Amino acid sequence: MGHAGRFRLMIAVASLELLVGILLLVKAATLFPVERTATGPAPDISDEVAQHPVRSIVNSARKIAENLITPPQIEGPDVERVEPRSPLGDLGLATRPKPSMPKDWQETPLYRPVATSSAGFDSMGRKLFISGTQSVEADRVCLFHDSAWPCGQRARAAFNNWIRGRALNCFVPPAVDRFPVAATCRLGKQDVGAWLVSNGWALALPSGIYGKAEATARTAEMGIFGPP
Fold first, then answer.
1. Residue bearing the bigger pLDDT, 101 or 167
2. How many CB atoms lie within 10 A of CB 17?
3. Distance of CA 186 to the CA centre of its chain
4. pLDDT over threshold 90, residue 114
């Protein structure tokens, strides 16, 4: 076979290989179709996002394997708000505010106080009652396990013995005003009202700040809630 014959044979083989390649490409296109996406401009969804941001995010997300994975239902503007749960204890609660006093009332030391009741006293020409408390009546008789005893007199005596010979610091009006007042007092660093109520020698007013102190005294059977 001459050179011309071999050259024609090579061209025939190359043409046959090219034809086989084209047929394979056509067959692959039919077996694995390619999804073509539109090349036009993307739709403007800014208005939809501004009006319904949550709904737009959910709708614009690409969904994969819908028959296997179900996206969670996200509520948009119809979310219901519930009240916060109650605190687990009183540890993190703010302390109860102290009773406010008029601006012209000043903390004044009162010397040689004398108890006139279980929550009242006279000192330096003033007559005061401990704010937030209620005195036990002087003629009150208390019962403890069928035992009666004069708890009113005992309560006044307990208060008088505690303050005798000491000075109380109380918020009182100016010296020209000597009318009886309910004042907040302390003996050293001890709140007088808290001491009286927690020891059971005075009662807490319903609107006062010593309710828990009275409950403690009742539970512990202190003062008028206990034995003679």
1. 167
2. 10
3. 31
4. yes
Tens of pLDDT, residue by residue over 74-107, are: 555 566 666 666 665 554 444 444 555 566 678 9
Q: Specify whether the CB–CB gap between 140 and 152 falls below 8 A.
A: yes
Q: Tell me the H-state helices in the chain.
A: 3-31, 46-51, 53-60, 151-163, 192-198, 211-220
Residue type, 56: S
Q: What is the Cα–Cα distance from 51 to 27, expressed in whole angstroms?
A: 49
Domains and CATH numbers, the chain: 106-225 (2.40.50.90)
How many other CB atoms sit within 10 Å of the CB of residue 127? 13
Q: Rounded to an integer, what distance in angstroms lies between the CA atom of residue 127 and that of residue 204?
A: 20
The model's pTM = 0.55
Compute CA 52 distance to the chain's CA centroid, rounded to the nearest angstrom.
32
- Other CB atoms within a 10 A radius of the CB of residue 164 amount to 11
Interatomic CA distance for residues 157 and 195, integer angstroms: 14
Q: Contact 149/226 with Cβ under 8 angstroms?
A: no
